[in-house]
Batch of 3 targets.
Target 1
Amino acid sequence: MGAITLDRIMAVQAAYIRCIDSDALEAWPDFFVEDCLYKVTTAENERNGFEAGIIYADSRNMLSDRVLALRKANVYEKQSYRHILGLPSILKNGGDEAESETPFLVLRIMHDGQTDIFASGVYVDTYRAHGTDIKFARRLVVCDSSRFDTLMALPL
Amino acid sequence: MNVNVSNSGGGLSNAAQPMEWPEGELTRIPFWIYQNPEIYALEQQRIYEGPVWNFLCLEAEVKKPGDYRTTFIGSMPVIVARDFDDEIYAFENRCAHRGALIALDGGGHARDFTCVYHAWNYDLKGNLKAVAFEDGVAGKGGMPKTFCRSDHGPRKLRIALFSGLVFGSLSDDVPPIEEYLGEEIAAKIARVLCKPVVVTGRSTQTLNNNWKLYFENVKDTYHASLLHTFFTTFRINRLSQKGGMVVDPSGGNHASFSFIDKSSQEHDYSALGLRSENEDFKLKDTSLLANIDEFGDGCHMQILTVFPGFVLQQIQNTLAVRQILPKGQYQTALNWTTFGFEDDTPEMKRARLRQNNLAGPAGYVSMEDGAVGGFVQRGVASAGGERAVVEMGGTSTRNEGTRATEASVRGFWKCYRTHMGV
Ligand code: FES
Ligand SMILES: [Fe+2]
């Protein structure tokens, strides 16, 4: 089991956004450990200590369920994201567990070509070394704005 | 129609449609009602500033003396504050001097308010208390001796509190809140808001459609199991479930509700071959659907609206209030405030956090509602002279023992037309 390094963190960050932006959502839950916490929230909610998320999953199975719902149940216009990441700041690194913050910008591209800034914010992450991989034990997606245009179908 | 709304564009185009709407007609809705800028301006006057109760915030959001929140009634900015006499007050967020906003943020805690522009000062009731340099400087300038501060101030709202909800009105003619809500709707609000609440989150969804399309959508029990296929798959929201709908006498307020009926294995959807049926759809983590019958009456879902822009939502254990605010005739802000109760156990807290996935901008059973109003708005772009058909369940605007009806949508138009005089 290799130690968590900046290299490996950057690699997993890059692979994560590539997964979502290329519509490979079925592989998205694999970036998380089984008892993960994934939450999309806002800076305002974080400041106020409000716990509810826009999306809240406290198990990897819940992430799989969201993908299934997006594929089979929910109705939304065809769209895709383009995530642009800033550089991760490593806040803590204990070798087999680490924490970082990584700024993001997400453009949403609608089927008719309309492209908008959909969200910006910061990923607040806790990683766990997992065999030869590192996975997210916790990924808090803190959006700078509390406003979301139309709906949030795809995950951030 | 009986209102002075001229058709913009004059006589230039044959496409210009007369804006007609036969009196009392509730089963045909002309699309110009979602498009016309004069209608939009009239709504501010006749609805938001008229004899209605506008939802402002939860009492829990202005809990302590000095707490305040800023919000809107229609397009009018409003401050809601709890003064040190422990009463809640609301007033226009507009300085009496040159009209600047008095409070610039979303809320917080204050002893008083000072306008940033020229420092006029207000108490938490909205009274003008001090004018900077009122007596001039070194004997020069200053306000005339005839200027009386108490003659100047932002417009004040009347306040009504009901079950922890704060409503405001600019009208002296609005009926008392209980009467305004109607007995059945009032009881259904009190059923959910039965004890002190705590806010757990806020967000705003920007809807690219006229506000009425969203308000109608919430009242539209017909679409629920057809557009939102997440629930139908789990037999939580089938039209065949036990439940129903009530509309208050004004037409503007409604509640739809359903009870889980595990015994009924209906085949109405599969027989029709509707899109809602997804036989092989199985959740891996079913804790999302583990409903706790917290109100002890078996009702697992209640969606309630109060004219002109309030929604109280109980979907299983996910509780929220939604405030619908117009932001121009083609845009709407939908403000979500999720909440729980002060006495929630850790298990209940966790259940709510998980079930919140059902509602909100990314909600399994609500995300479509954020988009569908836009589909209508885009669809009717050149159809101002055409009409929507709202005839499910006939012409009634009252209670129905079924949700296969558009009675509450017609109720909305009944109430809307009464207020608007169109
Ligand atoms: S506008 Fe408020 S003090 Fe001048
Ligand atoms: Fe809906």
Note: The longest strand of chain A covers residues 115-130.
Target 2
Amino acid sequence: MSSAQIEIQLIASVVAIACAIPGTFLVLRKMAMISDAISHSILPGIVIGFFITQDLNSPLLIFLAALTGIITVVLVEYIQKTGLVKEDTAIGLVFPTLFSIGVILIAKNANDVHLDVDAVLLGELAFAPFDRLLIAGADVGPKALWVIGSILIISVILLIAFFKELKVSTFDKGLAASLGFSPAIIHYGLMGVSSITTVGAFDAVGAILVVALMIAPAATAYLLTTNLKHMLIYAICFGVFSAISGYWLAHSLDASIAGSITTMLGLLFLAVYLFAPTKGVIAVMYREKQQRTEVSLLTFLLHLRNHTEERERHVNHLNEHINWQKVRSKTVLDLALKNNMIKFDKNIVSLTEKGNNFTSQAIDYIITNEDSKIEHMKEDFFLFRG
Amino acid sequence: MDKKKIPVSAGRIAVKVDDLTVAYNYKPVLWDIDLEIPEGVLMAIVGPNGAGKSTLIKSILGILKPIAGSVSIYNQPYEKQRSLVAYVPQKGSVDWDFPTTALDVVMMGTYGSLGWIKRPGQKEKKAALEALEKVGMLPFKGRQISQLSGGQQQRIFLARALVQNASIYFMDEPFQGVDATTEIAIINILKELRKAGKTVIVVHHDLQTVPEYFDWVTFLNVKKIATGPVKDIFNDDNLTKTYGINYKVSIQE
Ligand SMILES: Nc1ncnc2c1ncn2[C@@H]1O[C@H](COP(=O)(O)OP(=O)(O)OP(=O)(O)O)[C@@H](O)[C@H]1O
Ligand SMILES: [Mg+2]
């Protein structure tokens, strides 16, 4: 690996971490669209900042652009508050307007400088290592790494300091307000960090990848955990994994790095969406099938218990009486046998002692609906789980 | 906590609302409310849907900004008395799919006394576990909250209020969607709080149980209709004024 390659992966990974932190809270606050809006509407801020500073990485430019991001949020909320349109419509009104102002500004005044719409939207990671930061004449590494690294350090400090406030105001605004943690301050703080991160990262990776890195890893992590801290950690890991694997995908296909990273993010989400252990599509389908079988089993056991007459418990009768398809009856019968719940005696089915006990417990639960009764049954009986 | 701020003498006014008017988009939903809640009562707020009950509580707690009027808690503005007040919001006002467990939600009740930045530690965790035990939810402490039944979720929020160790409790429909056993369990906890000298204010919809559960009542429908001891003012006249129909007749139907 050449040092440029290492630096590209390093920049991509740092961007991924910096994006995953605010991204997690945006996803939880159902504000994914806002990050899209911010990433586009900061364009006029960048252009104006560029006119003033003539330097794409100047802190003033980042600040001005982040301010445009916050203005976007305020405008969206203001339009929404009129009650005339919904939030998504308000977003759809604000960001194209601001974005096109930026485009016009560039076309009118910045035609001859290094600032074009493609660069803003797509970025070019491959060039990032060539823009070096020189301190007193010494090369200290790529500029992008310093910019985004500083932003990352600030957001990590803010995250650690205000984790509890972010959590409570995201979960329950009313409680946060009544405890004295102003939800508005936290909201605009988060918007500020999201804007600054977007501005800091766009030059290296482009606005589209910034949005993807904010939303996709957090959305993927959301499917895997019920713990906010784990969600943050997973989101960071997914972001970094996609950044590095995306880089190598681009390398082997000779394709765009940003495009490949986005592809990896999409694939990762798809894989988790399908295979996540509890919320994944396949797990849900499996669980439903399992539950159906177990409900059938319970129905069957109840039938046996309710009928003492041998006639009612004859194998042939069971087939037509309970009215299940052959396959289903067989699965249920096998399951009951395997668990020693029933026994056969000349084609007459009856409950074993274990089956009898189990059925009583189940009835108990169904009638009283008392949670303490099923807590231990949950271990060995799928039906009652969650 | 700030025990010194809590007056011990009986007959004090815990919550005082003066000329309160609250509007959403300049349309008033609470109109010139005056209300005094004495310390140590277990009070029901009753009124039809949309009467402004939740709005009243939210504006007392500073969650909503009123367009006119003021609120004081033990003669001081709410901002200074935050630690004396706990709040159980109406169900559905939180994100149930949020990645958090029952214990975690209860812990949030301790955040107020911690203030900004400081993080909860063992002491807070212990208090949260005790509150969970009190509402009978200890076995569920690790459950993600959407995997709890409606009544269990309600108990978690009660525990979160208990852990705040406040003097005044506001609860917005804590009996919504809970079964008879849970309802009794909750009311017993509320009565215990009153016995300990706390003031408990509950938005309540089941008019039948008002005389049995509460000793104080406020009738509300955009304007305040009446407030006082249940035995004095819980009558057909006030019910009719509040609900706009002849209440007795409608019960019989
Ligand atoms: N965020 C809001 N924006 C606009 N109007 C609102 C908002 N919240 C409540 N309202 C309106 O204010 C009025 C009072 O609402 P509030 O929630 O206080 O009623 P409530 O007495 O708690 O009713 P319920 O018994 O149904 O809980 C209603 O007419 C409602 O439509
Ligand atoms: Mg309400």
Note: The beta strands of chain B are 13-24, 27-38, 42-46, 68-73, 76-77, 85-88, 168-172, 199-203, 216-221, 223-229.
Target 3
Amino acid sequence: MTPITSPSASPGLLAKSSFQRFIDALMAGGYRVMGQRLCDGAVKWDDVRLVSDLPIGWRDAQEPGRYRLEPTDSGRFFEVVNGPESVKRFAFAPREPLLVIERSSKSFQATPTLPKGEKTALLGVRACDLAGLAVQDRVFLRDAYPDPYYRTRRADLFLVAVNCARALPTCFCASLNTGPKAQAGFDLALTELDDAFLIEAGSQAGRELMPRLPLAPAPEQFLAEAEAQAEACANSQTRRVETAQLPQALYDAHEHPRWDQVAARCLACGNCTMVCPTCFCHAVEDVPDLNGQRAEQARVWDSCFTQEHGYIHGKNIRPAVKDRYRMWLTHKLASWIDQFGTSGCVGCGRCITWCPVGIDLTEELPALLKKA
Amino acid sequence: MRQQQPAKTTKAVTRPRLGVFKFASCDGCQLSVLNLEDELVALGQALDIVYFPEASSAMKAGPYDIVLVEGSITTSEDARRILNVREQARTLITIGACATAGGIQALRNWADVEAFKRAVYPSPQYIDSLGASTPISEHVRVDYELWGCPIDKGQLLRLLIDLLAGVQPRLPTQSVCLECKRQGHVCVMVARGLPCLGPVTRTGCGAICPGMGRDCYGCFGPAEGPSAGPGLPPNTASLASRFHHDLQLIPVEVLRRFRGINGHAKPFKDESHAWEDA
Ligand code: SF4
Ligand code: SF4
Ligand code: SF4
Ligand code: SF4
């Protein structure tokens, strides 16, 4: 096979039997390779060194409040679409030490504790995850004050996208134009066909890796097959979020009785915000020592569903569950647009699956937009 | 919880005096204090530990700046003793499910204690035992409550550090789920259909049980507003309905989920009552 050496955008073809060489090439490039691996009845990001580390032979069945893995004989490597973790934790860490503050005789000294970089290749990032990461980039990196902790972690990521061939009943990326095909934000993007992968580069780092892979030029028929696969995947999606009337229609629904109905079901547990690839709320905690000489400051994932999060100045501005769910959904689908120029939802469906009582925003939104 | 002025350190000369008192309990929470191995020496320097029978035979009289109370009230003698302990305490902290909510022994509150006595003791007339096990807060004013069976030693340490530093302690009230997700555990309810109490249970343990692949049984008590202070009672009704209708627990199983270690804590108690005749 003649390796493709030109940095052209045209995809190369990698035989499935050569996939180990792809993983090896990433590792040889100095990356810690991580992919979605089977764990406790779902998949989680973990080290991948061998093809057999991938969840081959399994697929995920998802519905509101329910996730199950089931066997499949499709032979596909990326048949499990996703698990509870998006790529969020790799840039916006669940617990990020920020500062060590030490007392000296008359003063104190604060030393930032930037994370130690580790080049990490994430294998199997979905289009909605890339869209979620782009939203987070906007939150953490834009304007004059980029967040150095996020930036350090983010700079170490090498993103290998996988275009979705199969949509879950909970997916609705097609209605939000965030998938199922990765459009931007990846280093390499894979399309899995029955016997081969199409690989295309989306960045300089990706283009540099391509020549180290045993690629063949991709025949036209494979490209067409990839297109058809993405289209079928988009068409198979049953859920959707209608954005035409947003954000205003949701602001207008502020007093809708539907909020009370959903609040009666909502546990205010915060799972939806934890699994959401775009939710960025955090709290900052101090951990002082006994002698009052040293304190560590860290930021931890927080959620608009907690009592503490709505507490300001001696008053809780979101005392009831209704206030919190309304805050979450209105921010996600409406005020996010005013704030960041984009929707806060990328259609991954995680908040639907991982809500312990199966609350479904694609059901709540139309109900809220209907006249009461 | 009524907040009172935290005890201030005025350097080693007058270290705050700490007393640890035990009522009906298993001593597990006091052991959590002793398990603070790495910090115990520093703690002993910051505080004057004057009454702690579990750890030392030196038992000095009050008053005490900080009092930790383990255990619930189950006898008339203890009901009198706690009044005296309160009088001696500037700041009183309950440690653990027993002291904070009545503990597992509060299951007696739904049973006939006299029948237990007759079944267990040859001479039941000598047993002085109240019909109910009740938390300390039903007897005296409590300044801070630490939940858990047992408590989390890190949470206790943090509370003491805050008191020593003279700042208002903040104890988290959010659900176990937040910590569960931060730690990256796969949800045992969604992925395996286990009836996890994490969504209505307050954080503090570090999501230990889901991390070991099992469902939370609520040992840290109800999230948010259990018995005192601001906050809402957790939405136990919605979770219970999920257990019954979707996870197929029969009503008595739903009842037992809520009537456990913290069964006497109001939100859990009310929920278990709702399933009594279901
Ligand atoms: S709101 Fe829900 S569906 Fe939308 S991006 Fe967040 S987790 Fe995914
Ligand atoms: S919508 Fe679901 S996941 Fe989100 S806080 Fe409510 S119950 Fe929890
Ligand atoms: S396992 Fe339990 S504590 Fe963890 S997210 Fe699920 S419901 Fe919450
Ligand atoms: S997960 Fe629940 S039962 Fe287990 S230690 Fe934590 S609070 Fe207690």
Note: The pocket of iron/sulfur cluster (ligand 2) is lined by residues A 266-272, 305, 355-357, 359 (CB under 6 Å).
